[in-house]
């Protein structure tokens, strides 16, 4: 479970670029390359090392014109997949966020 | 595995600066990709061997202001190296913000990080059996970094050319790079290299040349076209018949990253390598090519490549 | 299918190529017809599989083979629904496309 108040950021050695309506993530540590779709790329763009998961869901909800509740689980699932892939850093709420 | 643990008596023996007495005063120029390279500090024996090995890529460097890459051969204490015998020349590469370091059988090297314009190679013997392999390997590592810095890339891939257009065929070991290259020759196409190729950026797109001394069906002479405009990128797959389907840009970009040796293990290169891979995957059509291992692929292959 | 298509509705089905966000009609393994939103598709073992989900349902359906697709429902799809489908599909799309090989 991802804590909605946790600040999310990509790990230091992870690189992300958008490619039209998709995104590419390079996990340098073991040289894996991951692909994500348009929404995944948008979440990654919103993941600036200062926003919490809740703030990312809020921002995405405004852009996609959908209710926060409708997308909260899905954004959390996506973020969980990134965490499984070793691409993520979560900072506990209340601590200084910037990596 | 710790960097150099197999080859060096300790990490500390590798200098942090380009210090140490050169072996000699002779020098020669090599026209390798992203060069030219001035190999200096040579004895006449070293010069003769290196000149013979690189005969096809010699460059006359006039000592003028051209931006050459300097590679200096220096003496090292034998005690810096461990006793080891290998079946093939291999080496460790490590990098940080300051330098790229290389350690291998009978040599260690330091590459200057500022645009990789300088390198030193330290050896305990003037003319080891693998002198040519050491210099070749080192220049290849430098070429990988320099090509990336200049808007191109060095790639593990085959490349075939037809009607003045180059087609990159990417796949890892066993994917069939040599096989498809041989099949291409049978269909009247030219092969640049079946193992390592060099992509460089030009004003109006990318061009491809072969990397000297890579794969090559055992050829020793440089032949065939160079600076061929890039037309398409293929991922090689096995299949019962020849079949081509579109390949997503993300898949193509990932494959390109995985086929860029040396720089793809250096975190400092990650950003640029990813950009480069995306540029390439966006510049030309990307496809997956399945083909039967035994061939023949027939005229269908030449036809497909012409598209 | 939520408010867009109450259970038991009649819907016209066309044979055009489905896009994420479309409502598609799928024949389930038990023979019944289900109209759910298409989130996306992926390739496994050379075969195309579709991922669908009812708008009001929390989880996606199990992946469906392209052969189970009956057609695309003739209902208006709001732009928001397409974008929402992409968000819902995002976790599915995280996939390894390459592994480093020097």
> What is the CATH C level class of the largest domain in chain B, in words?
Alpha Beta
Terminal CA distance of chain A: 21 Å
Largest sheet of chain B: 9 strands, mixed
User: In angstroms, what is the radius of gyration of chain B?
Assistant: 20 Å
Second rung of CATH, namely the architecture of chain A? Alpha-Beta Complex
Q: List low-confidence stretches of chain B.
A: none
Helix content of chain A: 25-40%
What class do helices, strands and sheet pairing of chain A give? alpha+beta
In percent, how much strand structure appears in the residues of chain A?
Answer: 25-35%
Give helix and strand order of chain A, one letter per element, not per position: EEEEHHHE
Give a description of the structure.
The complex is a heterotrimer of chains A (99), B (307) and C (102). Helix content of chain A is 38%, strand content 26%. Chain A has 99 residues and is an alpha+beta fold. A three-stranded antiparallel sheet of chain A has the order 2-3-4. Chain A is globular, with a radius of gyration of 13 Å. Chain A starts with 6 loop residues before the first strand and ends in an 8-residue tail after the last strand. With 307 residues, chain B is α+β, with helices and mostly antiparallel strands. Chain B has six helices and 17 strands. In chain B, the strands form two sheets. In chain B, strands 9, 10, 11, 12, 13, 14, 15, 16 and 17 form a nine-stranded mixed sheet that branches. In chain B, strands 3-1-2-4-8-7-6-5 form an eight-stranded mixed sheet. In chain B, helix 4 (249-258) crosses helix 5. Chain B is elongated. Chain B starts with 25 loop residues before the first strand and ends with a helix. The mean pLDDT of chain B is 89. By secondary structure, chain C is mostly beta strands. Chain C has a single domain (13-93), classed as SH3 type barrels, CATH 2.30.30. Chain C is 15% helix and 37% strand. Chain C has one helix spanning 79-93, and strands at 13-14, 23-27, 33-44, 47-53, 64-65, 69-73, 95-99. Chain C has a six-stranded antiparallel sheet. The model of chain C has no long low-confidence stretch (mean pLDDT 87). Strand 4 (32-37) of chain A pairs antiparallel with strand 7 (95-99) of chain C.
């Amino acid at each position: 479970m991802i804590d909605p108040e946790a600040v999310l950021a990509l790990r230091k050695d992870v690189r992300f670029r958008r490619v039209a309506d998709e995104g590419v993530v390079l996990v340098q540590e073991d040289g894996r390359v991951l692909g994500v779709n348009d929404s995944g790329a948008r979440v990654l763009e919103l993941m600036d090392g200062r926003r919490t998961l809740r703030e990312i869901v809020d921002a995405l909800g405004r852009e996609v014109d959908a209710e926060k509740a409708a997308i909260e689980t899905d954004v959390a699932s996506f973020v969980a997949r990134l965490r499984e892939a070793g691409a993520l850093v979560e900072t506990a709420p209340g601590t200084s966020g910037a990596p | 595995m710790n960097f150099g643990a197999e080859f060096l008596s300790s990490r500390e023996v590798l200098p942090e600066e380009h210090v140490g007495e050169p072996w000699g005063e002779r020098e020669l120029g090599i026209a390798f990709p992203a060069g030219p390279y001035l190999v200096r500090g040579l004895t006449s024996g070293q010069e003769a061997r290196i000149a013979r090995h690189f005969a096809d890529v010699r460059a006359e460097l006039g000592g003028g202001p051209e931006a050459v890459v300097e590679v200096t051969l220096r003496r090292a204490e034998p005690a810096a190296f461990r006793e080891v015998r290998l079946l093939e020349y291999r080496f460790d590469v490590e990098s940080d913000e300051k330098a790229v370091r290389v350690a291998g059988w009978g040599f260690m090297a330091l590459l200057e990080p500022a645009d990789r314009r300088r390198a030193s190679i330290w050896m305990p013997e003037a003319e080891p059996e693998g002198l040519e392999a050491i210099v070749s390997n080192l220049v290849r590592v430098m070429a990988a970094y320099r090509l990336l810095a200049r808007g191109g890339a060095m790639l593990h891939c085959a490349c075939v050319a037809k009607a003045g257009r180059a087609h990159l065929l990417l796949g890892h070991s066993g994917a069939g790079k040599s096989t498809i290259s041989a099949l291409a020759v049978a269909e009247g196409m030219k092969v640049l290299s079946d193992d390592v190729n060099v992509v460089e950026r030009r004003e109006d797109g990318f061009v491809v040349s072969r990397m000297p001394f890579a794969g090559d069906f055992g050829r020793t002479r440089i032949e065939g076209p160079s600076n061929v405009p890039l037309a398409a990128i293929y991922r090689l797959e096995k299949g019962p018949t020849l079949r081509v389907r579109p390949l997503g840009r993300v898949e193509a970009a990932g494959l390109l990253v995985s086929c860029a040796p040396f720089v793809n293990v250096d975190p400092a290169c990650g950003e640029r390598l990813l950009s480069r891979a995306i540029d390439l995957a966006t510049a030309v059509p990307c496809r997956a090519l399945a083909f039967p291992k035994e061939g023949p692929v027939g005229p269908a292959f030449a036809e497909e490549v012409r598209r | 299918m939520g408010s867009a298509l109450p259970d038991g509705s009649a819907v016209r089905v066309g044979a055009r190529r489905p896009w994420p966000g479309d409502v598609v009609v799928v024949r389930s393994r038990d023979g019944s017809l289900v109209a759910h939103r298409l989130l996306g598709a992926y390739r496994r073992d050379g075969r195309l599989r579709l991922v669908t989900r009812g708008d009001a349902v929390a989880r996606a359906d199990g992946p469906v083979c392209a052969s189970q697709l009956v057609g695309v429902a003739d209902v208006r799809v709001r732009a928001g629904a397409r974008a929402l489908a992409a968000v819902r599909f995002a976790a599915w799309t995280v996939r390894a496309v390459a592994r480093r090989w020097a």
